[in-house]
Design brief:
mainly alpha
């Protein structure tokens, strides 16, 4: 069974699992999203005493924190015990696009030039991580949720604001991929 778990699975398996999770969450009246966990963590640490935004009963969101811990733990288990060590399988067109930007094909899960330990020590990478984190944090707060919350939970609930947010996420992703990414790298 361990060999079956460590092999790449077809894309539709994750779609079916996400759909099953959404049905269960809708049944229990919960909504999915990771960005709300930061608010719950801040409220649990007592930030509600100084900032009204964090003043709520965070214990009602304890299930969401368990979901976050489970996602992190599941990622660690799969990378530690179920990984074959082979490079991620990507298309030849993606490899050519990476090479045009000056990156080699991934030898593991991602290109070392982007995510290796050497790149994490450069000023450019630190500035990109800080700037990207700031923009993602601001954007998820301004949009009332993150990409997973809007795209999975909001669209499954047929919420109009989530559709608008998801369209905005895709437009932003296209702008980043085709306009900004080549300028940065």
């Amino acid at each position: 069974m361990l060999e079956t778990l460590s092999q790449p699975w077809p894309w539709y398996v994750s779609g079916a699992v996400i759909a099953l999770i959404m049905v269960i969450m809708l049944f229990f009246g919960k909504s999915f999203g990771f960005s709300s966990n930061l608010r719950v963590i801040c409220a649990a640490c007592g930030a509600g005493k100084k900032v009204p935004f964090f003043d709520f009963n965070w214990k009602n969101q304890l299930w969401n924190l368990l979901f976050l811990v489970g996602a992190i733990l599941g990622g660690w288990i799969s990378s530690t015990f179920l990984s074959t060590g082979e490079a991620v399988q990507i298309s030849q067109a993606t490899i050519q696009d990476l090479q045009q930007l000056g990156f080699s094909a991934p030898q593991g899960m991602q290109p070392e030039e982007l995510f290796g330990m050497d790149s994490l020590l450069s000023f450019k990478t630190i500035a990109l991580l800080l700037g990207g984190g700031l923009l993602i944090g601001f954007g998820s707060r301004y949009a009332g949720g993150c990409t997973s919350g809007h795209a999975i939970s909001g669209l499954s609930n047929l919420q109009w604001p989530s559709l608008v947010a998801v369209i905005g996420f895709f437009i932003g992703g296209l702008i980043m991929t085709f306009l900004m990414f080549p300028l940065i790298f």
